[in-house]
Each structure stands twice: as C-alpha cells, then as structure tokens.
Amino acid sequence: MARTVKEGGLAEDAAIKAMTVNAAKFAGAGDRLGTIEKGKMANVIVTDGNLLDSPRIRHVFVAGWPVDLDFPAQGGRGGRGSGQ
C-alpha cells in the first residue's frame, strides 16, 4: 500500500480507508470492525510516525485490550511448520 501511495499517486487517506473501513465492509464485518466507534471491536495500533512509512509501533490493542509488545517470541515448540 505504501508503494502505491508513493509511486502510484494513491492518496494516503484513501490507502488507510482501503486497509480499514473498506476492508471491513468488503469482508462483511463493517458493523464490528473498520472504524473506531462505540460498540466496535477496538483493534487499534498506535505508532510513532506515518503508518505508511515503516513507523515504530508503540501500542497494540486487540478487542480493546492492550497487547504486551515486550515479550519474547515463542517458537521451537515442535508445531506445524517448525521443521521438527
């Protein structure tokens, strides 16, 4: 999406809408996702800098609950695709 904004002339606000409200509507979930409104799921990311310019992610909320971004990745448990 960032490339389309930079090289293709897509407006930033149109790109953000394509990834949020329009995607939710297309998926049939516009009543639950896509915008920040009372009664909606509240999946939100907060960044330093422009979302389309590889910003630093500061906070993530899923269904309104904060996600701890400082925990180590869990891997090597022998699950599918682990090569074990």
Question: How would you characterize this protein structure?
Answer:
With 84 residues, the protein is an alpha+beta fold. The chain has a three-stranded antiparallel β-sheet, with no helix packed on it. It has helices at residues 2-8, 12-19, 21-26; strands at 44-48, 56-62, 65-66. 25% of the residues lie in helices and 17% in strands. The radius of gyration is 16 Å and the shape is flat. The protein has one domain (2-66). The protein has three helices and three strands, in the order αααβββ. It starts with a helix and ends in an 18-residue tail after the last strand. The relative contact order is 0.12.
Q: Any descriptors?
A:
3 helices, three-stranded antiparallel sheet, alpha+beta, 17% strand, 84 residues, 3 strands, flat
Quick summary:
The protein has 84 residues and is an alpha+beta fold. The protein has helices at residues 2-8, 12-19, 21-26, and strands at residues 44-48, 56-62, 65-66.
Computed over alpha carbons, the radius of gyration is: 16 Å
Write the H/E string, N to C: HHHEEE
Unreliable stretches, pLDDT < 50, 5 or more residues? none
Mean pLDDT: 82
The computed structural class is alpha+beta
The description of the largest β-sheet is: 3 strands, antiparallel
The number of helices is: 3
The helical percent reads: 25-40%
Q: Give the neighbour order of strands across the main sheet.
A: 1-2-3
Number of strands: 3
N-to-C span: 35 Å
Q: Total domains, how many?
A: 1
Strand content: 15-25%
Tertiary shape: flat
